[in-house]
Specification:
Structural class: mainly alpha
Number of helices: 22
CATH superfamily of the largest domain: Tetratricopeptide repeat domain
Oligomer: single chain
CATH architecture of the largest domain: Alpha Horseshoe
Number of domains: 3
Largest sheet: none
Order of helices and strands: HHHHHHHHHHHHHHHHHHHHHH
CATH topology of the largest domain: Serine Threonine Protein Phosphatase 5, Tetratricopeptide repeat
CATH class of the largest domain: Mainly Alpha
Distance between the termini: 46 Å
Number of strands: 0
Shape: globular
Strand content: under 5%
Length: about 475
């Protein structure tokens, strides 16, 4: 939140009352439109009824742990937290350490100002290029994804009525063409193939343009949107290479620039990436929350492809939570939404939200629900489309899903055959996700080494994808 938000009279009066319920109510009503109690409850990990109860209660909460947690969720500045006696200004550590050791929080916050965001992007890109050890060793924290999703949604709702400019300018078009080239490289050859080159391009070419252009102008808005696309792609490449802490940082900064550019579609697309990451790293509850936030923000824009993706990723998270009814419903919503997609109306970044991708995601959803027949059906659809486009990474992951379905049916020969196909494709791309899928299959099939087909799979896949030393 910008500092002036906390200077508004209703907010100040609520804080001075030392009643967290009054703070909740003032916080919700200070936004336009007013934030529903149910939305605030989701951010605070409470029920809507509990938020209503707290807002009506005259008895202040005195549990310091809860007060601290709720204030963190709302980003109440430390010096305004009456319960811990905090005083003074909050020190902004986002961009400190440029010449020395960078802060571990670099890139994890959603800055209130665009210049601060650009500085963070410059530092993040520089440290990535130089392969600084703090990025390699930093831990992924799913909670760091949820707060920026809330800030983006609030800003998107508040700015919904503002005019949006059309893309123009030769430099912006050149950046967009470059994005298309790198996106194609990622899709066809994996996230580990060209990220270093894209990081260099971002730092050397895009950051100087961001610093000298205003996002409130027509050309500036298009430039910031193009830069957000580049940051998203860097985050996705890092995600595909299992560098989750770095991916999260790129995605959060992409989200901030998408908001500066007034692009709810791109912001929702970034939240889809954060949702996917949350599920993969074992936090499906947060993944559902991120997908829903993306859909709420997308109501201010239009991208049926992005909406289909958000439903698909919500389904994967719901499957991981064991909620079969919700997951199947989300898959059906994804399918029906995708039927309405007009590729001519979609942005470049949505080009690969297609049948190969979505059917592959649905296959994994039904795999996690232990429904192998449906998993196999969607996997075959993804495989066919991936083969048509020569997309090895997507084809590899779909073959891995097909192998799992066959294994669930105790068909060792079919499982080994699909696993071998997955391994051969994974060996042609630089994608940790593809390798991890094959590694998982090797682990599941190792106890069936008496089968000739399984022995062949284990031997060939071990040669193609040797374990790291």
């Amino acid at each position: 939140m910008p500092p002036e938000f906390w200077d508004r009279q209703p907010i100040r009066e609520a804080l001075e009352s030392r009643n967290i319920g009054r703070v909740f109510r003032a916080y919700r009503q200070a936004h336009g439109p007013t934030i529903p109690q149910s939305t605030l409850a989701a951010w605070l990990d409470l029920t809507q009824g509990r938020v209503s109860e707290l807002e009506r209660s005259r008895r202040p909460v005195t549990d310091l742990e809860r007060l601290e947690r709720w204030s963190d969720a709302l980003r109440v500045p430390r010096h305004l937290r009456w319960f811990n006696g905090g005083t003074g200004e909050v020190r902004n550590a986002e961009i400190q350490g440029a010449q020395g050791n960078p802060p571990t929080g670099l890139g994890l916050s959603y800055a209130s100002s665009v210049p601060s965001t650009v500085d963070v992007v410059a530092e993040l890109g520089r440290h990535d290029m130089e392969r600084r050890t703090f990025l390699a060793g930093a831990l992924f924290s799913v909670a760091a994804s949820v707060a920026p999703s809330r800030d983006w949604l609030l800003a998107t709702l508040e700015e919904a009525g503002r005019a949006r400019g059309k893309i123009s300018g030769e430099q912006v078009e050149a950046i967009r063409r470059t994005f298309g080239v790198f996106q194609e490289l990622d899709v066809m050859r994996g996230g580990g193939h060209a990220r270093e080159q894209l990081s260099t391009y971002l730092t050397a070419k895009i950051v100087p343009l961001l610093k000298s252009n205003d996002p409130t102008t027509e050309t500036g808005r298009a430039l910031y949107e193009a830069a957000a696309e580049q940051l998203y792609l860097l985050g996705w490449m890092s995600f595909d290479n299992s560098e989750h802490s770095l991916a999260q940082r790129y995605l959060i900064q992409s989200l901030r620039l998408a908001q500066a550019a007034g692009s709810p579609e791109l912001g929702a697309h970034v939240l889809a990436g954060l949702s996917d990451q949350a599920t993969l790293t074992g936090h499906p509850d947060h993944a559902v929350q991120l997908a829903k936030a993306g859909r709420a923000g997308l109501a201010q824009g239009h991208s049926e492809a992005c909406l289909a993706d958000l439903y698909a990723l919500q389904a994967r998270a719901e499957a991981a939570l064991g909620d079969a009814k919700a997951a199947v419903r989300s898959v059906h919503l994804s399918e029906s939404t995708f039927e309405r997609v007009d590729q001519d109306e979609e942005p470049e970044w949505a080009r690969f939200i297609d049948a190969a991708y979505l059917n592959g995601e649905h296959a994994h959803t039904f795999r996690d629900l232990q429904r192998p027949d449906e998993a196999a059906r969607f996997a075959r659809l993804s495989i066919a489309e991936s083969e048509r486009q020569n997309r090895a990474r997507r084809g590899s992951m779909a073959q891995a899903a097909l192998s799992r379905a066959a294994l669930d049916h105790h068909d060792l020969e079919a499982a080994a055959a699909a696993g071998l196909a997955a391994a051969k494709l994974a060996a042609t791309v630089k994608s940790s996700r593809s390798v991890d899928a094959v590694t998982d299959l090797r682990s599941r099939l190792r106890d069936h080494g008496d089968s000739p087909a399984v022995r062949d799979f284990l031997e060939v896949s071990g040669a193609l994808l040797p374990a790291p030393v």
